[in-house]
Design a protein that fits this description.
Layout lengths: L18 H9 L4 H12 L2 H25 L6 H15 L29 H32 L17 E3 L6 H9 L12 H7 L10 E7 L2 E9 L7 E6 L10 E7 L1
Parallel strand pairs: 1-2
Antiparallel strand pairs: 2-3, 3-4, 4-5
Helix pairs in contact: 1-3, 3-5, 5-6
C-alpha cells in the first residue's frame, strides 16, 4: 500500500510514569510538544505529583542553602592551598622523581560529553546535595588530618580485599537537627535494614506519611545513644522544606518507633 508521506503518531508514555521521565519533565529538557502533552497527564497521577513536589522542595532548599553559603566567611588561604595540593596529588599520583612513562600504544577515543546519556534530574538533585556536604566535609577533614597524622602511624589497619564494610552510623544529637544533617543523610544514602525492607511503606504510614512518600535519603544513626534509621522526606503540604524522621529499625505496622521528627528549611 502506498505511503502518503505521514509517519504514524508515536504513543506518549502512560501511567505509571518512570522516575527518569518525571525528572526530565521537571528539568524542562523534553521537547516542547512532548512536555505539552505530558503535563496534563502527569498532573492527574497522584504519585507523579508527589515526585514532582519532592523535586520542587529539594531544588528550593538547595537554592536557599547556596545563598547562605555565598554569604558565609571565605575559606582561609592555608586551607584552600592544602585542598589544591591534595586535588593535584590525586590527579597526578605518579611521583615527580619517577622516569617518563612509555605512552600507551592504543589510545581509547574520547567520547564527547554531548553524546553521553543525559544524567537524570533525580541523580542531579541528590548529587547536588552530596556536593554541599562534601564541601563542608573537606574543610573539616583537612583540619582533622593535620592534627592526627602523628597519632595514626602504627594503628593503620588494612582492609581485606573484597570485604564489604557497612558505613558507620552517624552520631547525632537531637538538639542539633538542621538542614546540614539532611544533606549528610542524602549524601550518605546507603543500604540499611529499613530502607531495603518491605516494612518501609508501613513505617511511613505509621508515622503519618503517605505509604509511597518519596524518601530522598536514609542512613543508620546513633541518636542520643539510641540506634535508629534517619529518613529525609519532603515536607507534607504545600510548604517547601524537608522532614527529618528518625525511627527504630523495627518500625512497621502499628509500630511507628519514632525517635525524633523535625521539619527543616
Amino acid at each position: 500500500m502506498a505511503s502518503h508521506g505521514t509517519e504514524p503518531e508515536q504513543p506518549y508514555p502512560s501511567q505509571p510514569f518512570s522516575m527518569e521521565l518525571l525528572a526530565d519533565l521537571h528539568a524542562g529538557v523534553l521537547r516542547e510538544s512532548v512536555s505539552e502533552e505530558l503535563w496534563p497527564r502527569v498532573r492527574r497521577d497522584p504519585e507523579a505529583v508527589r515526585v514532582l513536589a519532592a523535586l520542587d522542595a529539594v531544588t528550593a532548599t538547595l537554592a536557599a542553602s547556596g545563598n547562605e553559603l555565598a554569604r558565609g566567611e571565605a575559606m582561609p588561604p592555608a586551607v584552600a592551598e592544602r585542598i589544591d595540593r591534595a586535588l593535584a596529588a590525586a590527579e597526578n599520583p605518579v611521583s615527580s622523581t619517577a622516569g617518563p612513562l612509555e605512552p600507551p600504544r592504543d589510545q581509547t577515543p574520547v567520547t564527547p560529553i554531548a553524546s553521553r546519556r543525559r544524567v537524570p534530574r533525580t541523580v542531579m538533585v541528590v548529587g547536588a546535595a552530596a556536593a554541599v556536604a562534601v564541601v563542608i566535609g573537606i574543610t573539616t577533614a583537612v583540619a582533622f588530618v593535620s592534627s592526627s597524622n602523628d597519632d595514626a602511624g602504627s594503628e593503620t589497619v588494612a582492609q581485606a580485599p573484597g570485604l564489604v564494610v557497612d558505613p558507620p552510623a552517624l552520631v547525632i544529637d537531637s538538639n542539633r537537627l538542621d538542614s546540614s544533617l539532611a544533606y549528610d543523610v542524602m549524601a550518605n544514602r546507603g543500604a540499611n535494614e529499613l530502607i531495603d525492607s518491605v516494612a518501609l511503606p508501613d513505617c511511613l504510614q505509621a508515622n503519618g506519611f503517605d505509604r509511597f512518600s518519596v524518601v530522598l535519603g536514609s542512613a543508620a544513626v546513633e541518636l542520643d545513644g539510641r540506634s535508629g534509621i534517619m529518613l529525609v522526606i519532603p515536607r507534607n503540604g504545600a510548604s517547601s522544606g524537608l522532614t527529618l524522621l528518625a525511627v527504630e529499625p523495627t518500625c512497621g505496622v502499628d509500630n511507628p518507633g519514632t525517635l525524633v521528627r523535625r521539619d527543616v528549611d
